[in-house]
Amino acid sequence: MNEKAIVCTCGHVNPPGTQLCQNCGRLINDDYDKKKTTDIMRYDGSAVRSKTKNKTVTDKIWNFFASVKTGVILLVLTIVAAAIGSIMPQEYFIPANVDPASFYQEKYGSLGYLYHQLGLDNLYTSWWFLILLGLVAFSIIAASIDRGVPLFKSLRNQATRKHPSFLKRQRLTGELVNPDLDQLEQTLKEKRYKVKREGDALLAEKGRLSRYGPYINHTGLIILLMGGMLRFVPAMYYDGAVAVKEGDTRAIPGTDKQYYMRNDKFILEHYDQQMNSNTESTKADSAMNKIAKNYETRLTLFENTKDSIPGAEPELKEVKTGNIKVNHPFKFDHFELYQNSYDQSLLKSMTFKVIDKKTEKEIGQTFTVNLDEPAPTYKIADNLTVNLRNYAPDFDKIEANGTLATKTPNTVNPAFVFEVDKANQQPEYSLLKIRSSQDISQNNQHAIKFVSATNHTMTYLNVKKDLTLPYLFIGFTIFLLGLAIGSYINHRRIWVNGNQIAAHTSKNYFGLKNELNTILEKNNQPAIKDKYESEETK
Question: Membrane-spanning residues where (predicted)?
Answer without folding.
Answer: 61-88, 127-145, 215-238, 469-489
